[in-house]
Amino acid sequence: MSVSDSVLHDNTLTPDNRDKFIYLSGQCNQRVKFYNVESLCADRIRELANILPEGFKALFSVAAMYRFLAPQIFPHDMEKIIYLDSDLIINLDINALWKVDLKDRPLATVSEHILGSDPRWFVLCRDGVVKLEDYFNSGVMLLNLNIFRREELTLLKGMKFVAANPQYHFFDQDVLNYCFSTAALKLPIKFNLLVRDLRARPGVRVERKIYHYAAASIRLERDDIFNRLWLSYFMKTPWFDEEAIGRFYAGFQQIHVELKSALVNLSAIMSGRTRAFFAVPNDLDGLKQFFSIRNDEKIIPAENPDSLQKLLDAMKKARGKRVFFIMLPNFPYQVLTEAGFVAGRDFVNGPEFLSEAQGVPFFSYPLIQAM
Description:
By secondary structure, this protein is of the alpha/beta class. 41% of the residues lie in helices and 15% in strands. It contains 18 helices and 13 strands. It has a four-stranded mixed sheet. Helix 15 (284-291) links the parallel strand 10 (274-279) and strand 11 (298-301). The protein is globular and about 75 Å long. The model has no long low-confidence stretch (mean pLDDT 88).
């Protein structure tokens, strides 16, 4: 069978986007085939939906499971496929990956270990279920369909195991690792480089590699080589048109409206109240200057784990009298809501009011999504 591009999709694929995929594939002298997985595998998808934990369904689409269904979607005379996430820039000849000899391996992948990812992210490794050096990223995979067609029960067992352990939050990736981590052929790192990790390395440059823009890594800052790389490819696609510019402008309008609404809401909740701040001691000097903190406004230093209890005690004592600005990124706000405090009334997310001058970059990913 000749090599072709394939799009695995559900019923949300519009005719316009379908036509754009056909045009784009034709520009590369390829042809594209469409597989409506929602129709082709309706019974199997219902089975998967019953297995998936509620936390996964709240954050991700069932489409993340489509790679598990590939063996039954593609014709039986197709022996292997390249699976690619949608957040990749393929800045090399993909034929280099296609030519990799799988032999008797079920799949070939790039290890998270050589990608330099923080091992604390992967609870499957922390718990000793999979060794860190064997744990792989599932965004780029060369799959041996002949083997996968024989491993349907293995995958089903893996899905049930991960679903029964909600601490394994990379559900689809953890399932594949649970089933095949020791059997996977390890690919060179050039086939799957995480942009978020590359940005922290001095002197890095764009090369003939596959770049993975996971975790909303795309931004609009002009001085970033990876942003420019993504934009250079996006501008070559049929999705970059007058509609994209219009959606981009609408996105800016939405940010503007939300900012004004936030300021109006803040002025309303501050009526008759004073402010209080929960912040890391090293940040206090800058915050005092930016927020013009007065002497009568309370500051609770976030010094250690006991500081959270001090915050809760202070909030209980000052309920209805103070609005608490929580100045810590990744703060567990559910602790406050579980204690009966209301977001936007008793406390606010302080970093939302900071700017680039305070070291908080403008989050432009929603504008990328709008385009």
